[in-house]
């Protein structure tokens, strides 16, 4: 039963990552004068509304809002809101390739470092090797080609974005047992949407007058945000946070495939090598569950989630 739950969690996280991987191709369909920060803020707002509608559609998920810890929800919401804004700022400063490579590639490192500090257990050999291969593959996929000026400030923003995403994953994993995934995701993204709403008043929004932008924004909000993070939150209840964040590296793999097939970007040798490394690393992580913490095995705590299988 535990193996079945773990496999279901793996499938949910990979499906979420594949949805996230569509965002680059979709944003390419928006007007050239689009503002990335506005896209990020609207994506969060639309996603939060969709998740709220989903959570309010059933009595069980609607009532579950009362059981959520306010502090945990606030922390997770601010973390995912910070990730979105920091990520778009990093891409502006460091270029798409370098910014994405550092932000996505650093998240598993942040999460694994926290888990090692909290449990005093190093990752198993095959698991650690799989994470290293995945990060290296993701870097090759997104850091080759036209990367723009890799400014030190942009690299720092990207690393902070990775830390914010890691913090969101850890916080959501910790409080995920307190409510159904739809309820938890609706609450955290409601906080994120409110926190990033001022961007809409500060950045140019004239390009939003074009009617063709709204179907793209709708999918970015409903599909690539609401559905994706609902799946990711559901998967986090069945996996270690470091496993989920590593599996989410399927995002740049999906983005590369779409860029190659839809946009027509060349399939260069470094990117093919990156795809191979990433697939090999994800397979190793999938086959190597994380060891549960000793404290979780020795004494149950009703305020903490049950032991996770990897």
Automatic annotation (TrEMBL):
Q: Which UniProt keywords apply?
A: Cell membrane, Membrane, Transmembrane, Transmembrane helix
**A single cellular component GO annotation:** plasma membrane
Question: Where in the cell does this protein reside?
Answer: Cell membrane
Pfam families xrefs: EamA
Q: Where are the transmembrane segments?
A: 38-60, 72-92, 98-116, 128-145, 151-171, 183-207, 213-232, 239-263, 275-296
According to its record, how does it sit in the membrane? Multi-pass membrane protein
Q: Which Gene3D superfamilies did the record assign? A: 1.10.3730.20
Q: Where is the EamA domain?
A: 8-142, 154-286
Per the annotation, which location comes first and is thus the protein's main one? Answer: membrane
Q: Which InterPro entries match?
A: Diverse_Substrate_Transporter, EamA_dom, EmrE-like
Question: Where does the source fall among the domains of life?
Answer: Bacteria
- UniProt keyword annotation of Phosphoprotein present: no
What's this protein's name? EamA family transporter
Q: From what organism does this protein derive?
A: Halovulum marinum
């Amino acid at each position: 039963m535990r193996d079945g739950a773990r496999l279901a969690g793996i499938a949910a996280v990979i499906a979420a990552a594949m949805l996230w991987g569509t965002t680059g191709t979709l944003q390419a369909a928006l007007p050239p004068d689009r503002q990335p920060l506005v896209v990020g803020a609207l994506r969060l707002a639309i996603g939060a509304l969709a998740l709220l509608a989903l959570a309010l559609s059933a009595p069980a998920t609607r009532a579950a809002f009362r059981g959520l810890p306010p502090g945990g929800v606030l922390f997770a919401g601010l973390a995912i809101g910070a990730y979105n804004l920091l990520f778009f700022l990093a891409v502006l400063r460091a270029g798409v390739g370098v910014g994405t490579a550092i932000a996505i590639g650093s998240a598993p490192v942040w999460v694994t470092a926290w888990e090692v500090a909290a449990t005093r257990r190093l990752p198993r050999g095959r698991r650690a090797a799989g994470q290293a291969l995945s990060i290296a593959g993701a870097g090759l996929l997104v850091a080759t080609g036209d990367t723009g000026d890799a400014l030190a400030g942009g690299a720092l923003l990207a690393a902070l974005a990775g830390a914010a995403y890691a913090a969101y994953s850890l916080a959501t994993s910790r409080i995920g047992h307190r409510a159904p995934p739809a309820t938890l995701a609706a609450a955290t993204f409601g906080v994120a949407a409110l926190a990033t709403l001022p961007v809409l008043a500060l950045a140019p929004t004239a390009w939003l007058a074009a009617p063709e932008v709204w179907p793209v924004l709708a999918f970015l909000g409903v599909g690539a945000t609401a559905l994706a993070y609902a799946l990711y939150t559901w998967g986090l209840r069945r996996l270690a946070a470091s496993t989920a964040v590593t599996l989410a590296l399927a995002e740049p793999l999906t983005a590369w495939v779409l860029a190659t097939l839809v946009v027509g970007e060349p399939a260069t040798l470094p990117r093919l090598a990156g795809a191979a490394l990433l697939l090999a690393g994800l397979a190793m992580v999938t086959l190597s569950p994380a060891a549960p913490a000793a404290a979780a095995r020795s004494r149950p705590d009703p305020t903490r989630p049950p032991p996770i299988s990897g």
